[in-house]
C-alpha cells in the first residue's frame, strides 16, 4: 500500500484587490472604493501605470492600473469609453490619484465602472506609483515562490513512492487523494490506461471521464486539468487528466498534476533509464568541461570515474549536431552504440548528450598525433552509423578539434561545439576540421550582431537586389571568383565562360558594388562579406 500522503496546504492565491488595498503603501494613500465593491476579490496578475487614452491596448488582463487620469478625458463619453475598454481587457481594478486632473472622480466615470463591475478606487493622497508597484509585485513573487515550494513537497512525496518500490497505480491513487478528485492516465490515442478515484457524490469517475470526452456541454466538472505524459520514442504523448467531480481544481491542483505527470513519465520510461542516465551523466561532464566548470587538472580523474580508461597522452575533442526529431531516450541508444563501436576498435571514448537531444559531445583517446585523421574518421563513422540505424538520421554535422591534453580539453570541446553548430552553412563533409574553420566559427558567433548584417548589406546589397530583379544572376560569379582565389582564368573555366563574357560580368559587378576587383584590400572585404552572408541569412 502506498504511504499516506501528507496533507496539502490550501492553494496560495494571487494577491487580490482587497489585499492590495490593505498594504501599508496603499493605506497611506487613503483609498476610497467608489465602484465595483463586489469584485474586490479579483486577483491582481501585475501592476501597470500609464497616462494615455489608449492604455487598454497595452494591457493583457488582470492588471491593477495606476493613473492620475490625464488620459481619460473630460467628456462623459470619453470616460465611459475608457472604462469600457479596460473592462473588455479584464482589468483587475483602476486606481486614480486625485489631484490636478480630477479633484474628485466624475459621476460618468463612477457609473461606467459600476456598470461594468470594475473596481474603481480614488487615491486621496499622493503616492509614488513605483512604491505601489514594488510592494504588489513582491507579494505576487512571494506567492508564486510559496506555490513552487509546495510543488516541490508534492514531487518529493511522489518520488518517494517510486523509491519505495511502488508503481504508477500507487502514484495515481496518491495524486487522487491529494486532489480530492479522480485522475485518469490516457495514452497518445486517448485510450484509458488507468484511473484512480472512487464515486464522489454518487458520480462514477469512469462515467465522468467518458462524458468529458464527448463534444459540447458546459458543466463545471468539465473544467478539468491535464498534463502531457511522454510515452517513449516514436509514440505520441499521452496525458494525465484530473476532473473536478468532487470539488474545484485550483492552482495547487495544477502543480500537483504536473508533478505527478513527470513521475508517471519517468516510471513509464524506466526500461531505458540506465542508458539515458549514463548518456546524461557523460553529457553533463563533457558540457561542464566545455563551459569551464571543471578544472583542467580534475578532468582526467573525473573522466576515469565515469568510464574513460586510457593512458593515452592526448584526447580528440568531437562535437555533433543533428536536427533529427527524437527524444533523449532514443538518442541515448545512439550514444551507447557509438561508444560501443569505438571501444570495439580499441579506442577509449566518452560520448554524451549536451543540453538537448541531437547535440552531442565526445572525447576519444589519441595515442599518437599522426593518428588524428584516422581516429576522427572512425568516430564520425560510429556516430553516423548509430544515428542512421536507430533514428534514420543522416543530417549530422560533426566537428573535430586538434589532439590536446586533458588540461586543454575544455576549451577545445567548446570550439568543436561552436564549429559543429556553424557547419550548417558549409558543404557536406565526413567531418569538419575546427582548425580550418576559425573564420566561419567566428562569423557564426556574430550571426545575430546587427553590425555584421549591416556590413553584408553594405558590401553585397546592391548585387543581391540586382539578382532579385534579373534572370541572370551575378552573385554566383562573384562567389566563384572568390572561391578561385580571385584568379580570372580559373574562374572562367569553373563557370564554363569565355574570358570576355566573364570580364563583362565582372565589370558590371564593379559598377554595382562600386569596387575595384584588382584591389586586394577591397577583395578581402568582399571575401569576408561572402563568408558572412549565409549566417546573416539564417543558414545556421
Automatic annotation (TrEMBL):
InterPro entries: CdaR-like_regulators, PucR_C-HTH_dom, PucR_C-HTH_sf, PucR_dom. Residues 20-140 form the Purine catabolism PurC-like domain. Pfam families: HTH_30, PucR. Residues 474-532 form the PucR C-terminal helix-turn-helix domain. PANTHER family: CARBOHYDRATE DIACID REGULATOR, DNA-BINDING TRANSCRIPTIONAL ACTIVATOR ADER. This is Putative regulatory protein. It comes from Patulibacter medicamentivorans.
Amino acid at each position: 500500500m502506498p504511504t499516506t500522503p501528507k496533507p496539502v496546504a490550501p492553494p496560495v492565491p494571487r494577491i487580490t484587490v482587497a489585499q492590495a488595498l490593505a498594504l501599508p503603501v496603499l493605506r497611506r494613500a487613503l483609498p476610497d472604493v467608489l465602484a465595483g465593491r463586489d469584485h474586490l476579490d479579483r486577483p491582481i496578475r501585475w501592476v501597470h501605470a500609464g497616462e494615455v487614452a489608449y492604455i487598454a491596448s497595452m494591457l493583457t488582463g488582470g492588471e491593477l492600473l495606476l493613473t492620475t487620469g490625464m488620459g481619460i478625458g473630460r467628456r462623459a463619453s470619453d470616460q465611459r469609453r475608457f472604462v469600457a475598454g479596460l473592462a473588455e481587457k479584464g482589468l483587475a481594478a483602476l486606481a486614480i490619484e486625485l489631484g490636478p486632473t480630477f479633484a474628485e472622480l466624475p459621476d460618468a466615470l463612477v457609473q461606467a465602472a459600476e456598470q461594468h463591475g470594475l473596481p474603481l478606487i480614488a487615491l486621496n493622497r499622493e503616492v509614488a506609483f513605483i512604491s505601489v508597484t514594488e510592494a504588489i509585485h513582491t507579494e505576487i513573487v512571494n506567492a508564486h515562490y510559496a506555490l513552487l515550494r509546495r510543488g516541490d513537497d508534492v514531487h518529493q512525496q511522489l518520488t518517494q513512492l517510486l523509491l519505495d518500490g511502488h508503481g504508477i497505480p500507487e502514484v495515481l491513487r496518491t495524486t487522487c487523494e491529494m486532489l480530492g478528485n479522480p485522475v485518469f492516465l490516457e495514452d497518445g490515442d486517448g485510450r484509458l490506461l488507468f484511473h484512480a478515484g472512487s464515486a464522489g457524490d454518487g458520480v462514477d469517475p469512469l462515467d465522468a471521464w467518458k462524458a468529458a470526452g464527448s463534444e459540447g456541454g458546459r458543466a463545471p466538472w468539465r473544467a478539468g486539468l491535464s498534463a502531457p505524459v511522454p510515452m517513449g520514442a516514436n509514440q505520441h504523448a499521452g496525458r494525465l487528466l484530473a476532473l473536478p467531480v468532487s470539488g474545484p481544481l485550483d492552482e495547487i491542483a495544477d502543480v500537483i498534476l504536473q508533478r505527478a505527470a513527470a513521475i508517471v513519465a519517468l516510471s513509464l520510461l524506466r526500461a531505458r533509464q540506465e542508458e539515458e542516465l549514463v548518456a546524461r551523466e557523460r553529457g553533463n561532464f563533457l558540457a561542464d568541461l566545455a563551459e569551464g566548470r571543471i578544472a583542467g587538472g580534475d578532468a582526467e580523474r573525473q573522466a576515469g570515474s565515469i568510464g574513460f580508461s586510457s593512458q593515452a597522452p592526448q584526447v580528440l575533442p568531437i562535437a555533433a549536431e543533428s536536427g533529427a526529431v527524437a527524444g533523449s531516450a532514443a538518442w541515448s541508444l545512439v550514444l551507447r552504440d557509438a561508444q560501443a563501436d569505438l571501444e570495439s576498435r580499441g579506442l577509449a571514448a566518452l560520448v554524451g548528450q549536451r543540453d538537448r537531444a541531437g547535440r552531442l559531445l565526445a572525447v576519444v583517446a589519441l595515442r599518437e598525433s599522426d593518428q588524428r585523421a584516422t581516429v576522427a574518421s572512425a568516430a564520425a563513422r560510429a556516430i553516423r552509423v548509430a544515428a542512421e540505424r536507430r533514428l534514420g538520421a543522416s543530417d549530422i554535422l560533426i566537428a573535430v578539434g586538434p589532439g590536446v591534453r586533458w588540461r586543454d580539453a575544455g576549451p577545445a570541446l567548446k570550439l568543436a561545439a561552436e564549429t559543429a553548430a556553424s557547419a550548417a552553412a558549409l558543404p557536406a563533409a565526413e567531418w569538419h576540421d575546427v582548425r580550418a574553420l576559425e573564420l566561419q566559427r567566428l562569423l557564426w558567433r556574430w550571426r545575430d550582431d546587427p553590425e555584421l548584417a549591416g556590413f553584408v548589406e553594405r558590401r553585397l546589397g546592391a548585387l543581391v537586389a540586382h539578382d532579385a530583379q534579373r534572370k541572370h544572376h551575378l552573385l554566383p560569379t562573384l562567389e566563384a571568383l572568390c572561391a578561385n582565389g580571385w584568379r580570372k582564368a580559373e574562374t572562367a573555366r569553373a563557370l564554363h565562360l569565355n574570358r570576355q563574357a566573364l570580364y563583362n560580368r565582372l565589370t558590371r559587378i564593379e559598377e554595382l558594388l562600386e569596387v575595384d576587383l584588382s584591389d586586394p584590400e577591397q577583395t578581402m572585404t568582399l571575401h569576408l562579406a561572402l563568408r558572412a552572408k549565409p549566417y546573416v541569412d539564417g543558414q545556421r
